[in-house]
Amino acid sequence: MDGLSRMEVKVLLKLERKKSVTELANELGLSIYRTSILVTSLERKGLVKTEKRGKYKIVSLSEAKPAELFRKLVSKFGHMPLDEILSGRNLSLLAVLREAPLGAYELCIKANLSRSTLYHVIDKLSSYGLIGKKEGGYFLVERYGLFHEFAEEFYELQNTLKAKEFSEDSTLVWSGVGEFILSTREYKGKDVGNFHLTGLERFSDFGMELIGTGRYHYYYSEKAKGLSLEEVIVHALLIDFNPRTILYSIVLLLAHKDKIDQKNLFRVGMKYDISVSELLKHLKGEEVKRYPYPSMGEVKEIFKMYFGEEKWVR
Q1: How far apart are the first and last CA of the chain?
Q2: What pTM, to 2 d.p., does this model score?
Q3: 196 has which bridge partners?
Q4: How far is 114 from 94, CA to CA, in rounded Å?
Q5: Cystine design at 276: which of 155, 231, 269, 298 (Cβ 3.0–4.6 Å)?
Q6: For residue 107, what are the CA distances in angstroms to 115, 153, 203, 270?
């Protein structure tokens, strides 16, 4: 997943003013070739911009929001080893840490980290005083909230850039660490590289051909090779949590209740902060009698429309 290397952060720290690649190379003790590669990488990530002045390439911080937040970090926390704090997997955890405590399991899911890597990062950031622990969870110490803001905006910028490469008219619906969901008017196919059609538009794969809205939603992940039914349903609810989506999601769950992995459904719901408890009550034959959840009669009617009366078993 796109992050920042320690040397990339070192380059950013040298840009308190505009500098040529040659100046940066001399200050960093690197070759011009190696420095140029770092600058190109940072420009691709939207954090620096370059301009030609004669035979020299001049580098400066960009006007993107993460670059502005980096300036603030240097101003407020320049005495700290920012190259260590903001590089590698540290940035992934900082992007999801909040002032409210989160358990290790939830942090692993949201930050896309293995448990061993998570504890390694927690130990490192704790040694700098950034992380505290209470109520069985970990939280970001309040005075360091700017670190979270920078990390979150950094990943959103990376995701926006990838989304625009995929479709020029795309907008982000949800942004995470190394993954996102976009909305576009362009249909690109069901699975295009790391992009996967999702939400209601994907329900047809599971027996529900729905009338489209003219917009398509794609999930991007560097890791996922495809989408599970649980992910498609939670994505649909995330994209548009309304009575229609809830109704169709319940029907789809019922139609495939023997194949649904409830543990995975809870895990995916946790990642996107979508509660699935009420949906699962329908699998037990329980009705949720409050808006925006549908009545049992509505669920039965739509179920029979798509899957036939003979398959309706409660």
Answers
A1: 44
A2: 0.94
A3: 191, 219
A4: 15
A5: 269
A6: 9, 18, 29, 10
